[in-house]
Structure formats: C-alpha cells, structure tokens
Amino acid sequence: MKIKMFSYAQLDTFIHRLSGLTKLLSFLFLSFAVMLTYDYRIMLLTLVISIVAFRIAKIQLKQIKVVLYYVLFFLVMNLVLTYVLAPNYGTEIYGSQTILFKINDYFIFTKETLYYLALKTLKYFCMVPLGLIFIFTTNPSEFASALNHIGIPYKVCTTLSLTLRYFPDIIRDYNNISLAQQARGIELSKKQKFTKRVAMTVKMVIPLIFSTLDRVEVISNAMSLRGYGKEKKRSWYSYRKLEISDYLIVILSVAVLALSLFMRFFVTKTMFYYPF
C-alpha cells in the first residue's frame, strides 16, 4: 500500500481499530495531563505511552518528516526566545540559583533555567506524537460519525471530516505546483539562495489559494445538489460502536490526568515541581 504524507493510512493495528472518539478523548486527556504540570514524572509517563502507541500504530518516519522539521524549528525558536527574553526565568520559578557559567551579567546559565527549558522540550515530545497518532490513524468519516452520535450536530461533524481529508490534498497540490515550477526551469532546491526560495514559495501559495477556493466551490455545489443539510439527522456508513478496548484506553487516559492533578494539588502542591 502506498503511504500518503500527513493523512490517514488504513492499517490493521490496535490503534487503528479504536474509535475516533476514543482517540480524541485520549489525546485531550493526556494533553491536559501534560499541560497542567511541570512535573517530569508525569511527562515521562506520558512520553512512554506516546512512544508505545506510536510504535503500535506503525507510523513511518517518511510520513512525518516534514512535520518534524517544522516542530523542531519552532521548538528551537521557542527555547532561544525564552532564554534571551528571560535568562533567569528558572530562578524566578524555583526560587533558587545555581550558576553553571555566565557570559555577562545578563546572560547567566543556571541549572534552574536549563531544567525549565528541558521540561518545555519534553512537553513538545509528549504532545506531538499524540497529535500525529490521531491524524494518521483516524478515519475522518468514522470520526465524524462518532462525534455525531454523542450529540454534536452532523453539519459540524462533516466540516471536521472534510478538514481532515483536505490536509493531504493541500500538500499534494503544493507538490504539483512545485514540480511544475521546476519543470519550467525554476530552481527550488537547496542550491538556490534561501531568500529566493522563500520568495518562490510565496508565489506558489497564490495558485494554491485559488485552487483551494475552486475545490471548496465544487464540494459546496455537490453537497447542495445532493440535498445536504435539509434533514435534521443523517445516517453514517462508517459508524463504529465503542468496544471494551475503547473504554479501557479512555480509562487509562483519565487515570493519567487524575494522577497529574493529584500530584500537583496534593503531593507537590505546585505546578513547577523541582526535585533538586
């Protein structure tokens, strides 16, 4: 089977067999568990769960390579800006200062600040795999039907389904436009200067926007011709009932969130846990 980039791939794995609603709830619960604390123990637990689920889902590196580049870029930029704007932020949070070395009176490298930056990095590595698992293993139609069966209006569900399906189409159109430009002799590889590549990328976005508008109009007309939206309810071809495995995964996610809240409010009694 040909693997598509940044889109749902139909495989027979335990993660793929879970309901889309289960994966959404698990993603939200685990994300909240990580966002509500800076306790490295909760983060490491969530990271282990993410890595295990990632391996089970059989997501290939070439599927997420582009996404990883963007994530790493924004991560590095976030860390650099955080340190440049507040070099002593870790000291302010944890109430202590252990100087490792310093460049001048402003740029001081403390153990507390480096520990805080390490935790921010760990947050990224906890949450990004969870989001990728949801995107690559969730059938958009099945996900929409699951949301509709818990009371969300089917028009909203259909919109979400179309959005999930549209991501790979945008990437495909961008690649086609890029290849067409290169066929005309326009250099877009790394041999070209970075500024010129950025300028050409901006130029390629314009036809991409027009093709997107044309596609939206075609979909809108097709749905209108089929009488979409006239009835209060609709049937779903790809609806899947929740099974025992779905309930167990949701319970596990809720347990991690409950553990995170318990550790924060009853054990460490602080959001910024510092073990040193």
Can you give a write-up of this model?
With 276 residues, this protein is mainly alpha-helical. It is 69% helix and 3% strand. A two-stranded antiparallel ribbon has the order 1-2. Strand 1 and strand 2 form a beta hairpin. The longest helix has 32 residues. It starts with 13 loop residues before the first helix and ends in a 9-residue tail after the last helix. The mean pLDDT is 83.
SSE layout and pairings?
Blueprint: H1 14-17, H2 20-35, H3 40-57, H4 61-85, H5 89-94, E1 99-102, E2 108-110, H6 111-137, H7 140-148, H8 154-183, H9 194-225, H10 244-267
Antiparallel strand pairs: 1-2
Helix pairs in contact: 2-6, 2-10, 3-6, 4-6, 7-8, 8-9
Oligomer: single chain
Major sheet characteristics: 2 strands, antiparallel
Care to count the β-strands?
2
Strand content: under 5%
Which structural class do the helices and strands define?
Answer: mainly alpha
Query: Alpha-carbon distance between the termini?
Result: 50 Å
> Which stretches are poorly predicted, pLDDT < 50 over at least 5 residues?
none
What is the share of helical residues?
55-70%
- Main sheet: strand order: 1-2
Mean pLDDT over all positions: 83
Report the radius of gyration as a whole number of Å. 23 Å
Give the SSE order as H and E letters.
HHHHHEEHHHHH
- What is the approximate shape? flat
How many individual helices? 10
